[in-house]
Amino acid sequence: MKITFIGADHEVTGSCHFVEVGDKKFLVDCGMQQGPDIYQNQDIPVNSAEIDYVFITHAHIDHSGLLPLLYSHGFRGKVYATAATCELCDIMLKDSAHIQESEAEWRNRKAKRAGNTEIVPLYGIDDAVGVLEHFVPCSYHETVEICPEITIKFNDAGHLLGSAFIEVWLTEGNEKRKIVFSGDLGNGNHPLIKNPEFPEDADYVLIESTYGVRTHAAPQDFAAALAKEIEKTLKGGGNLVIPAFSVGRTQEILYFIRRIKEEKMIPDLPDFDVYMDSPLAVEATHVFKENISECFDQEALSLVQAGKNPIGFPGLKVAVSSDESRRINTDMKPKVIISASGMCEAGRIRHHLKHNLWRKESTIIFVGYQVPGTLGFSLLNGAQEVRMFGEDVTVCANITQLPGISGHADEPHLKEWLSHFKKKPENVFVVHGDDEGCEAFASKVREELRFPAYAPYSGDSFDLITGEQIAQGSREKKPKPSNLRASSNVFARLLAAGQRLMHVINACEGMANKDLGKFADQINALSDKWER
C-alpha cells in the first residue's frame, strides 16, 4: 500500500497522485500542466493499461486534462467523479482536444513553409470521446465500494460546480488506511455554489496550498467594484475585457453583472452590452442550470424559486461561431467582453487582447489567479509590450485586478479545514502550491496545528502502512521530455500500445491453450506484416 506523487508538487498545476493497494492501481486526478514546468513531473510508474481507476476531484483542466492522453496510451479503467464533474468534463475534454488539434494544424502550416518536422497533437477528439465513455457519475455523500480494496466518497469542496474532496478507504489484508484528497478548496464566499464541507478523520491528508501563505483581502462588494470599472471604461469609449475561465469564473461574473443591472448600479448605462465569447462557457452555463438542486447555494436557489435566472439578464449576447467572435471587435460600441482562457494562454481572449491592449481607453480586468510565466501574469505585472500572433503589441490599456472572488481557500481557510480533523493524521502532504509557498504552509501546519506535514516532490513515494518514505523524486529544476505527461509524437503512442499488449498477454495466463495459440498467431501475423 503506497502513494507516489506525480504532479502539482512544488507547483500549482498538473495534479496527479498514484496509489497502489493490493494488486489495484489508481490515480487521483490526471491534470495538465499549465504555465511553465518548474520541476520535471515524473512519469506514472506503470503502463497506462495497468491503471484500474481514476478519481477526479473536479473538472478544471489542471486536474482532468490528461485523461485523453492516458486513454490514448492504453487506459481502459473507470473514471469516477461527481455527476456535475462528469458533465463538465464532457465538454471541457472535447474542447481541450479541439484546441490540441487546432494548434497542431496551425503550427504545421508554419512548419511546412519552413521545412520543419510535423507536430502531432498531444491527443485528439477520439481520445477525449473514448475516455468519456469510461466515466461513472457519483452523488455527493454516497459511499461507493469500488472493489474490496477501495471505497470512496465525494464531499463538496466549494471550489467549482461539482468539485469535491475525496475520502478514500484502503484495505490490504488486515491493514486499513484512510486518505483524504482535498482537491481544490473554495474560500467560502463564492456566488452560486455551496461553501466547502469539512472532513473529520483520516490517516493521511493531501491538501492544496495555492494560497497557503496568503490571506485574501476582506470580502468586498464585488458587484459594486465591477460596476465602477464598467462605468468608467464604457463612458470613456473603451471596452472592458475580462479574461475568465469558461467554467466557474464566467458564470460568477454573469451572476454579478445580473446584480449590477437588476439593482441599477450604473443608472446612466442601464442597457450596456455584455458578450460571452466562449462556446465552452455557453455549454458550461447550461450544465450549471442543470445542477441547481445538488450544487447551488441557498441564495441562488431562492432566485430560481422566485423565477429569476441567477446568471442571465437583458443585454447578454453570446458568440459561438468564429464569425460572431470576430464581429465583436468590428462593432465599435463600448461593451463588456468575457472570454477564455483565464490566463490568456490560448483561446479567443487573445484576439480580444490584440484588439484592445493598445487602446488607452480600454480596460483589462483579471478576476482569477495567474500562474507565473503566463501572458496574464506578465500583463498583471507591468508588461509594456507583448507578442501576439507574430506581432508586437504595445500595452496602453488599463490593467487591473479585482480581488474578492478567489476560487481557492487562503491560509486561514485551509487551516480551518484541517482543524476539523478530530485526531492528528499520520501525515499531511502539502501539494498544489508554488515552490516556496507549499514549504511555508507545511511549516505552518507543523507549528500551529501540531500536525506532521511534508511538501512532496514529484517522484516521492510513501508506504501507507508504515508511513515511511520509500522513494525520493528529483529536486532538479531542469525540464526534460516526459513519455506520458508531455509526449506529442506518435512513436510514443506506439510504444504505449506495445506495453498495453504485454499487459493483456500477462493477463491471459491460465487460459485454454487453444485460445492462447490463436492469440499468439494473431500477434505474429501482425508482426510479420509490419516487418515486411
Could you name the key traits of this structure?
23 strands; Metallo-beta-lactamase, Chain A; 3 domains; alpha/beta; 35% helix; 8-stranded mixed beta sheet; Rossmann fold; 532 residues
What would you call the structural class? alpha/beta
Count of DSSP-assigned helices: 16
Q: Catalogue the unreliable spans.
A: 480-488
The termini sit apart by 45 Å
Describe the structure.
- 35% of the residues lie in helices and 20% in strands.
- With 532 residues, it is an alpha/beta fold.
- α3 (83-114) runs antiparallel to α4 (125-132) and α5 (222-235) packs across α6.
- The chain has three domains: 2-215 and 407-481, Ribonuclease Z/Hydroxyacylglutathione hydrolase-like (Metallo-beta-lactamase, Chain A), CATH 3.60.15; 222-401, Rossmann fold (3-Layer(aba) Sandwich); 495-531, no CATH class.
- Strands 6-5-4-3-2-1-22-23 form an eight-stranded mixed β-sheet. Strands 7-8-9-10-11-20-21 form a seven-stranded mixed β-sheet, with helices on one face.
- The longest helix is centred in the N-terminal third of the chain and has 32 residues, at 83-114.
